[in-house]
Amino acid sequence: MFFETPDGTRLAYESYGRGAPILFAASWALSGDMWEYQIQFFVERGYRCITLDRRGHGRSDRPSDGYDLDASADDIAALIEHLDLYEVTLVGHSAGGAELARYLARHGDGRVARVAFISAVLPFLKRTDDNPEGAPEAALRATLAEFRTDRPKWFAKQTQIWFATHLGNDVSPALIDWMLAQCLATSPWATARLFEAAFHADHRAALRAITVPVLVVHGAADASARVEITGRRTAALVPGSLYREYPTAGHGLFVTHADELNDDLLAFIKG
């Protein structure tokens, strides 16, 4: 299914099941298909599951602009309004979590029941005087240079680290190839621009202002968004948040720890 945003971009979304709505925001460079192991679980338990392919990703249009987090948040708002969703649970992974934080900051929580930040690139990745734990700008520039030189090689290097297979997480070569294919099918322009936008976005004030219930889930072995500068700090900033940390999980915990994640999400929604 498709809908059109106010700027004329055609975005793809999918909706399964009936009941209380859950909107899943995908990771950077991945489409809504990444949530395969969550959708079936929640539909079978009476929920409506909605996924969005952000612009430049999956089956959506690939315009030249709109890859900042404000535009992403506005696209999410447009989908929520298009479907007329209320009391929706928002679940975002990695950059999808950052987009949801920006959505709440720009559009408020009038339609939102709760939000879950999964391996989210929050609260602020860039190193500054008041954020000395962050990564230097040079690290971002080096990654962008690798994209320009050999983007498939960069993604291929991340696969084992992404799933933390060195800790015994069982991920088949076929599943890794499937995930890699999703990343490489994403617009190269969108890949670079969203990566850059997420790196520079400061969500600290927005996180402190959240008033709906929040679940933060992160892997202790996450090499893409190190837990000490992301998950733990996010949980500390959000008033009354619930924090879950998986000792053997990397960034791709929605696959490697799907059962544990699904159970935690379900308990959070029911709670």
TrEMBL record:
<feature type="domain" description="AB hydrolase-1">
    <location>
        <begin position="21"/>
        <end position="257"/>
    </location>
</feature>
<keyword id="KW-0378">Hydrolase</keyword>
<dbReference type="Pfam" id="PF00561">
    <property type="entry name" value="Abhydrolase_1"/>
</dbReference>
<dbReference type="InterPro" id="IPR000073">
    <property type="entry name" value="AB_hydrolase_1"/>
</dbReference>
<dbReference type="InterPro" id="IPR029058">
    <property type="entry name" value="AB_hydrolase_fold"/>
</dbReference>
<dbReference type="InterPro" id="IPR050471">
    <property type="entry name" value="AB_hydrolase"/>
</dbReference>
<dbReference type="GO" id="GO:0016787">
    <property type="term" value="F:hydrolase activity"/>
</dbReference>
<protein>
    <submittedName>
        <fullName>Alpha/beta fold hydrolase</fullName>
    </submittedName>
</protein>
